[in-house]
Amino acid sequence: MTAVPETSVVFLWHMHQPDYRDCLTGEYYFPWTYLHAIKDYTDMAGHLENNPGTKAVFNYVPILIEQLADYDQQLNAYLSKGDPVTDPLLGLLTTAERPEPGSERFAELLQKCTRANRERIIERFEPYQQLMSLYDNSITIAGGDRYFNQQYLTDMCVWYHLGWLGETIRRDNPTVEALQQQAFNYTAEHCRDLLQIIYSAISGIIPRHKKLAESGQAELITSPYAHPILPLLLDLNSTRDAMPAAPLPESPEYPGGEERAHWQMRHGLAVFKKHFGTAPKGCWASEGALSDATLRLLGEHGIEWSATGDSVLFNSLRGDGNHEASERIKHDPNSRHTAFQVGQDGVKVFFRDDGLSDKIGFEYANWHADDAVGDFVHHLENIAKAAPKDNHTVISIVMDGENAWEYYPENAWYFIDALYKKIEEHPFLVTRTYSEVLHPESDAATTNPISLEHLCAGSWVYGTFSTWIGDSEKNHAWDILCEAKRAYDHVVSSGKLNDEQVNEASLQLALCEGSDWFWWFGDYNPSDSVRDFDRLFRQHISNLYTSLGLVPPESLNTPISIGSGAPANGGVMRQGHQ
What we know:
immunoglobulin/albumin-binding domain-like; 3 domains; 49% helix
């Protein structure tokens, strides 16, 4: 029997949240950044620490890094000096004044304490489930929340945060166990204990990942600063590479898009280096959105490799100039599991296995962990056995490192741990990082990348940009952004702003350019999420006008999108293939 050559498996976990702050007031509108920090970023580091024979790549978006640093500073200032916390939900665990029961603010904060996975988080803990039953009954009565008191709000808030804690914290911390045993009637002292746990978790995220990188167990990479779709900043018409008939915004281009794309890269790399101490070799261009022009831009900023979905590869293989690669992969489909060279640029590209990545994101959550791991490793083995022997095979698993796990029992604790251990013990599957497989002196080096003359512009979602542009609501949002950018250009070029004001306006513009707002526009998304992100996009745009000394247009008071759908996993993730 022919021995199977050693095969590299690369896990790239993408960590990203947009800026949920109102940058003019500093207040956080939504708590998702710190909640994913205490649940997912801590657990993902913990799983790697508990399995020292496993390697992985982590992508931390710069705007997320800055928010983590902000929460770190705020919690430290509160715990040491009593300074206020600007996240209203987190503030319920402090001694700050509470809203009156029956008030709009009380109802809003109480409702936020219900936004957790009902099956995996709320129903897991009997006291939390009992509190939720009371809430469920109250919303059937107009003004029902007026019958609640401050203790009920405190208990709901404590359980909300206990439910969102990662398993690496829950299983190792006796204070968490004591808080769970308390069940009800939490005091200010209990809340402070919980805040200390949250602070310790958030403050440890960057140092723990740095330590993993320094040991060689992890590779840390980043994205453009505020997670914009770079190909669309560079050329809105790149949409039609993969969708020739797609309707486009009225604006023919994003004004000054190339300059803004370079700004997003420069500023993002500076933020990453400030917090992690080194420059990344890789870049997950936001949403895996790549084009020929984007790859050239990444190369100009010193990036050595990037990645995207395999639908981009399949679309590219149909293009002119890629006949040789197309025939090679048609003859041997598993040869696609390697590095690719696009044109003459130095940036290498890896294409994720969409099918395997989506099995983790959408299928395995309802399997027994051992069965899921066995099925997954079996697929890896089949690829390794069938792959060509003349070049080192690299199987790419690239996916969201935060949103999938709440759909698994106990935050995927059993699945991820068993998966890492299974591959650690495997005779020919080996986890590696992308920089490791590209290093010429590595035994695992991919020495003969497949050449592509042209890359069909697209993202990891369906191989297109349809998630961010091409329908009426998304296009309308682009027109709003383009109009605001023209106002920015006019004011900045007039010389009316000093350097500090220009910098503040540029940062605010960057937030408006992020991908997340466009992701959520559309009827196929749930109305609650659409409402939240629609509101925040319009607030960011309004703040941009204010930072420029202009009056925001009245049109910004009108919602762009409503939403009415019920997509898988609440719409926070998409599958690679339609």
